[in-house]
Specification:
175 residues; mainly alpha; 5 helices; elongated
Length: 175
């Protein structure tokens, strides 16, 4: 009896043929491909500013503003990501292929939104705000990793599909 994960050939594909075609034709795929690295760069800059403030006490305003900026980009990528998911899978959120990534995204959004609420309501001191930002950023890193794993799986699926097409092509017929 074999234990562990089933072989990749038996795993359910991330995209059906139709979904892959919709993904490849959607403008929202390009939007996501642009926003994701923008968000990551914003995260790195903001993380540096937040850590600098926590360590030195300097740059409070820059750190506060950077978290707001990062959060705005997060909202943009979540809204456009939902539109992308609808275009590809027919659901705005929680499509089977990205269910757990979407679940964790809700935590990321909740933590970033809690930061904004605490900032604008003045219920936390600057240090506590920065610690909340770090918690939001930790959740973001986990969520980004989830999506990178899915991106890699999609590329591997695409490679295996191409290999399958080539292996099963009839002589003289291009795959």
């Amino acid at each position: 009896m074999q234990r562990g994960r089933p072989p990749a050939a038996q795993a359910k594909p991330l995209y059906s043929t139709e979904q892959r075609a919709r993904r490849d034709q959607s403008i929202w795929t390009i939007v996501q491909a642009v926003l994701a690295p923008v968000q990551f760069v914003g995260f790195l800059v903001s993380l540096g500013l937040v850590v600098r403030f926590l360590v030195t006490g300097a740059g409070e305003e820059s750190a506060l503003i950077s978290v707001v900026g990062k959060t705005i980009v997060l909202y943009a990528i979540m809204i456009t990501g939902s539109i992308w998911e609808k275009a590809v899978f027919g659901k705005y959120l929680f499509a089977e292929s990205f269910f757990w990534e979407d679940v964790f995204s809700m935590l990321v959004i909740a933590l970033h939104t809690a930061y904004l609420m605490a900032l604008f309501l003045g219920v936390l001191d600057p240090r506590a705000l920065m610690l909340l930002a770090l918690a939001a950023y930790a959740a973001y890193v986990i969520n980004a990793t989830q999506f990178l794993v899915k991106l890699r799986a999609a590329r591997l699926q695409g490679s295996s599909d191409a290999g399958f097409a080539v292996a099963n092509a009839q002589p003289g017929v291009a795959p």
